[in-house]
Amino acid sequence: MNPTRALVVAVDLDLPKRPLAPELEEFLALVEAAGAEVAGVVVQQRAAVDPALLVGVGKARELAEIAERDGATALFVLNDIRPRQRTNLEKIVPLPIVDRTMLILDIFAQRARSREGKLQVELAQLRHRAANLAGLGTVLSRLGGGVGTRGPGETKLEVDRRRIRLRVAALERDLERVRRQRDVQRAGRKGEPLAALVGYTNAGKSSLLNRLTNAESYVADQPFATLDTTLRRAYLGPGRSALIADTVGFITALPKELVAAFKATLEELQHADVLVEVFDASNPDWPRQEESVREILADLGLAAAPVIRVANKIDRLDTVARALLPPDALPVSTLSGEGIEALRTRISQRL
Ligand SMILES: Nc1nc2c(ncn2[C@@H]2O[C@H](COP(=O)(O)OP(=O)(O)OP(=O)(O)O)[C@@H](O)[C@H]2O)c(=O)[nH]1
Ligand SMILES: [Mg+2]
């Protein structure tokens, strides 16, 4: 199968607090991680997104031309796109529109290995699809259920919607069962202290788990290498050990459908005695990434959880950059092993 050729479009709203560059770079990395190739990137500067079309009508026509010329097979939209904007834009650029949530969900779908992971991704995808159907639904219902808008029983849309609802209900039941299994497992290991690794995707959480526990979890230079929670026992010092949990990485504006669907996976965090919050100190974008992680933790009700802050990948930093790291963050390199003993000690102290 030929890879998807992505024409990427972004509206740059020129927000001082949210510069486009890092988000665009991250978006392109996601496109690549999904296995698509970038056919072109178009950025439009605007004070606000166009309410009807997202971009201006002239820009939309230009996109159609570029798509045709460069053989794009899908339009990838960085900004949030509303159902109505999607419908209108599709009329001018005759390509399937992939939004950021669909893109992230697609990567998750490709990476999911465990049954739980697969169920969770499917649930998130269906919820996202339903949300977009809903937009189309209002367009249809505004036409009124008059002649020609209804078939013998119901419109295709309503059939789709009902099918989605049934499947969502089945998935929710399955996941509830998974959740109860986890509760049982958790009860079984009661008493053993648990430290959970959290952080932006690609920060090095799985690498750190491997360092701390001599395990061989999957590590890769790509977003969302890990989807499933892994638990391993780590030696912390003479006569002391703890369980370490590695889990799915976070990303700015993690789709709400995903957070909801990954409830069972993320629940592990609620039971941790301490969170080890890892950031990639070699990425100039780390402050923004860490802020996103904090926001998601707050959404999960974990704003007040005890945290050990870890600055990873310091092997890539020179002396000056190291000196500029926040003083409360423990500098670590999972690559060279630097700082790992100090981290063991700190975890041990906090448990
Ligand atoms: N130079 C350097 N690279 C590192 C270090 N730690 C991890 N990496 C690299 O960073 C990339 C991501 O590492 P992972 O451990 O998969 O990151 P993760 O946080 O588990 O990522 P997700 O599972 O995708 O959320 C890999 O290419 C690692 O080899 C480090 O200390 N130094
Ligand atoms: Mg990982």
Walk me through the structure.
- There is one protein chain.
- This protein is α/β, with parallel strands linked by helices and 351 residues long.
- It has 3 domains: 5-100, 3-Layer(aba) Sandwich (Rossmann fold), CATH 3.40.50; 112-185; 191-350, P-loop containing nucleotide triphosphate hydrolases (Rossmann fold, 3-Layer(aba) Sandwich).
- 47% of the residues lie in helices and 17% in strands.
- The chain contains 12 helices and 10 strands.
- Strands 6-7-5-8-9-10 form a 6-stranded mixed sheet, sandwiched between helices. Strands 2-1-3-4 form a 4-stranded parallel sheet, with helices on both faces.
- α4 (100-111) runs antiparallel to α5 and α5 (115-142) packs antiparallel against α6 (156-188).
- It is globular and about 65 Å long.
- The model is unreliable at 135-153 (pLDDT under 50).
- Magnesium ion (MG) is lined by residues 205-206, 225-226, 249.
Helix-strand layout with pairing:
Blueprint (H helix, E strand, L loop, with lengths): L4 E8 L7 H14 L3 E9 L11 H14 L3 E4 L5 H10 L4 E3 H12 L3 H28 L13 H33 L5 E6 L5 H9 L16 E8 L2 E7 L9 H6 L1 H8 L3 E7 L5 H14 L7 E6 L6 H5 L6 E2 L8 H11 L1
Parallel strand pairs: 1-2, 1-3, 3-4, 5-7, 5-8, 8-9, 9-10
Antiparallel strand pairs: 6-7
Helix pairs in contact: 1-4, 4-5, 5-6
The structure holds guanosine-5'-triphosphate (GTP) and magnesium ion (MG).
